[in-house]
Amino acid sequence: MNKRTILSAAVLAAFTATLPLGAMAAPDLKVALIAGKTGVLESYAKETETGFMMGLEYLTGGKMEINGRKLKVIIKDDQSKPDLGRTLLAEAYGDDKVDIAVGTTSSGSAIAMLPVAAEYKKILIIEPAVADAITGDKWNRYIFRTARNSMQDALSAAATLKGGSVAFLAQDYAFGKDAIKAGKEALAATGSKAKVVHEEYAPQTATDFTASAQRIFAALKDKPQPRVLGIVWAGPSPMNKIADMQPGRYGITLAPGGNILPVMKTWRNYAGTEGTIYYYYDFPKNKMNDWLVAEHKKRFKAPPDMFTAGGFAAASAVVTALKKAGSGDTEKLITAMEGMDFETPKGKMTFRKQDHQALQSMYHFRIKKAQKDEWDLLELVREIPAAELPVPVRNKR
């Protein structure tokens, strides 16, 4: 190296040192999105990804920048397998050096991922997994959840039941058992006089519900009215098959939990049936939802679905937190996110400080009689505000 080269290098170094910090390219902000894009929950995962990317687009004005730093999204498929979910999250934190991770679709996989966030001391935003344990006994301080939990589902359903007799049908795994446990607790918490007379659990892949229905009908048919069968199911719903067995002859009405649009489209013949749901595109009235509905219809020829809205909400939490913290530093993010309000297609959500669960409204729906098109399915009975959903704090903070 000659004297001229050494001098040039010294001048360049001195010049660089005098530049304002903003003049140097800041490193990218990195976010991992982990979802079960392969397997039984793949439709949920794809909706989550679509909503997440549309949310980032809307919230950054299409620039994919936050505080002048480029936003990079790394997407991983955990196939709804807990071991793979754990491995991919460790890879995201350790190899990809992400600032925040979001995921995942399966509650089992999400629960497996929680200790990884604590090990790497990095934020994990849970979307859309709903198991209560995630913000309950399995929680740690790095976990935030934009998804509703099973208890929020249950409390909204309980708010529609004033008395009578209830049976439940759910899948025989963590999601289903958690939901029914929450359902029973919610009835007690809301002071409902409805009595749970039967719990029925069927395999996650069940297609024949004859035996299950017979047990449910036998348990309900002589009990005080109204007689309600609550159906909690992830994936293709058994509601049509149960309805074909004519529960009405025993005075039994069906109360389905909300599902994705392709599933609810098969319920068109059950006008007047009521239930509760996390999101339906026509219910919220705000600018963010207006944009999502219009843009989704333009791009995909269909309205956005439950998990699309959930992905969008997670994107809003990410963007709001990074802007508020002014950094991808974990401790600054936790300080910013505890008690943080953020706007979503459903309206405002708030991360409760005690357990980082997003408090949010839910919706009581009725299946429409007059339907204008294939997606015009539900009418709003009532928005149930977060203030009417007393979700208990169950972590050990």
From TrEMBL:
Pfam families: Peripla_BP_6. SUPFAM superfamilies: Periplasmic binding protein-like I (SSF53822). Residues 1-25 form the signal peptide. Residues 29-370 form the Leucine-binding protein domain. It comes from the Bacteria. The keyword Signal applies. Keywords: Signal. Belongs to the leucine-binding protein family. This is Substrate-binding domain-containing protein. It comes from Massilia soli.
